[in-house]
Amino acid sequence: MDGFAGFIGRDAEIGKVEAALRRARLVTVTGPPGVGKSTLARRVAARAGGRVTVVDLDDDGDPSDLPGGLPGDKAAELPEVTAGLLVLDGCDRAIDEIAPRVRALMQANPRLRVLATSRQSLTLPGEQVIVLTELGPDARAALLEHLAGQAAEPPDGLPLTAELLAAALRRGEPADVTLDRLADPGRPGPSRHTSMRTAIGASHEACTAAERILWARASVFAGGFDLEAAQRVCGAAPLDEDAVLGAVAALVDKSVLVRSEGPLGVRFRLVESLRMFGAEWLDRLGETPYVQEWHFEHFIRLARQAEREWQGGQVWWYQRMRLEAPNLRQTLEWRLADPGTAEQAQDLGGTLWFLWACCGLQREGAGYLDRALAARDEPGPVRTKALLTSAWLDGALGDLAGAERRLAECGDGPRAAHLAAVVAVQRGDLRGALRLIGDARSGHRRQSDMFPGFLSSYVVIATTLLRMGNVSGAVTVLREGRDLCGTAGESWTRSHLDHLLAQAEYLRGDAGQALGHARDALRVARLFGDVAALAAGVELVGALSALSGDVKDGELLLASAAGMWAELDGHSLRSPVLAEIAAQAGASPDVAAGRPVPGPEEAVALALQETD
C-alpha cells in the first residue's frame, strides 16, 4: 500500500497510539485482517524519535520452526534491544511464543517500549490495547478513488479490501465484490496479504472448531446482533448456549467479531469481508437454509414481543427495531425468495405494522407487503393482517385506491372499518368517515384494542371535525384522547393529537397555546424519525411563528418544510387544514433575508428553540 493510501482517515488513530506509548511501555494494536495495523505501526515508528527497531514477524514460514518462536536470525536481535521503541509487527502468527519473550525483554530492560501489532492482545501486565476499526464512509471512498482512479463502493472499511478491489478494477473486472475478486498476486509483502481470502483464512486457521462454526452461523446477521440473538440463531448442536458465549468472546479477542456498546447494550458484528468468508463456510457445512430459518424464528419472535409491548414502551422499541432493521430486511428477503415461505414474509411484514407506520418506513413496508401478498394469495388470518397493514400504509402514502383494494379483501372488522374511515376523510366523505369510525370504535372496545385501535380513532374523529369546521368539538375530542394516551403511555398517538390540537387552538384564536402544542408534537415526532410527521411539525411551527410575529425564523422553517415535503415526492398526504394555516402565514419567496435553508435536523432544532 502506498504511503498516501495507508493514512487516509487515520490521523486520529496515529495520535492515539503515540499518546498511549507516552503512558504505557507496551501498546498492542489489534483489529481484523486488512484493517491496516502494520501500516499504522510503521507510520508511528517513522515519526518516533530516538532508537527504533522494527521486527517483521509476519513472514510466511512456519512459526514452529523458528527458534524462540521468532523468525530466523531476528531472534538474536531482540536481546540486544535494551532501550527505545521496539515494533513487533505481526505477533499473532506465534503469539504464545512471542508473549513470554516480550515480557522477559521488558523486565530486563526498563527503558524499552514495545509497540506490537496482532489480531489479538498479548495479555501481558501493563499492556494497553488499541482496537483499530474500519475506515468511515468518507475515508473509505476517498481511499478507493485514490487507488483505483474511479469512484466505487467498497464492501467494508478495511484498507486492504480497498487496495485489492482497486487492483481488480484496474484489471477491468466488474465492481461487484466477491472474495475471489479481492486478490492481487503482484502485491508486495506477505503472501497472505495478496488476497482477502488468504488474509482472512489465517484468522480462520487460528480458531477452534466451535469458533469456526459460530463464525459461519453469525454470517446470517446483517448489521450486527446481541448475545441473545447469537444464542438463539447460532446455538444449535454442536454448540450450546455456553459454547456460543465462549466462542463469541474468543472471536472478539481474535478480532473476528467487532464488539460495540451503545444505549441498548452490547452488540457484535462481522466486518463485511469476514461475513462473506463465513457465509461461504456456512454453505460448505450445508447449514445455510437451517440457520436462515433460525434467524427468521428469532426475529419474528422479537417482532411479536415488540408488537405486544409497543403501547407502553414505544421509544425504546423504536430504537431497538430500527437497530435491527438490517436483520429484518435480510430475513424478509430470504422469505420472499422462496414461494414456500411467502406466508412467513406476510406474517413478519404484517406484525411490523408499528415499525412501518409509526417510524417513517411506510414506503419500505408497503414494498415488502406488496411482494409478500403477491407471492401467496391463500386466505387466512396471516394474510388478513398483512392486508390491513398494507392498507394502512397505502393510505398514509396517499394511494387511496390501493388502500381500498386491500380493504375490499379484508372483509368486515373494526380495523378494516377504522382504515376505511381514514380513506373516507381523505376522499372528503366526512359524514361517512364519522359513521365508519363510530362502528370501528365499538369493535375496538369489544376486542379491548386500545392501540392501534381505540386511541388512534381520536385522530380520525378530530381530523374529520376540523375539516367540517367544528373546532370546539375537535378540541373536546382531542383533550379526551390526550388524557387517555397519557394514562396508557401512548406517546405516538398523543403527538398526532397535540399536532391537531395546535391547529384547533390557532383556529380558535390562541396562537400562543397553538405554538406550545405544535412544539410538543414535534418533540415527540422526532423520537420516531417519521419524515412526514416532522415535515408537518416543522411547517406548523413555522407558520405559527410567522403568524405570531417571528417572521424570519417562521419563513425559514416553512422553506425547510417545503424541502422535506418535496423529498417525500408526493408519497404522503398533507393536511388541508395545515395547508390553510401555512397559506395564512404568507411566506415570502425571499426567504429570511438570504439565510441558508436548514436541513431537517437543523430545522427541527430551530423549531424547538434549541439553537442560539
UniProtKB/TrEMBL annotation:
Signal peptide: none annotated. The lineage of its organism: Bacteria, Bacillati, Actinomycetota, Actinomycetes, Streptosporangiales. Residues 23-226 form the AAA+ ATPase domain. SUPFAM superfamilies: P-loop containing nucleoside triphosphate hydrolases, TPR-like. It holds the Pfam family HTH_77. SMART domains: AAA. This is AAA+ ATPase domain-containing protein. InterPro entries: AAA+_ATPase, AAA_16, HTH_77, P-loop_NTPase, TPR-like_helical_dom_sf. It comes from the Bacteria. It comes from Acrocarpospora corrugata.
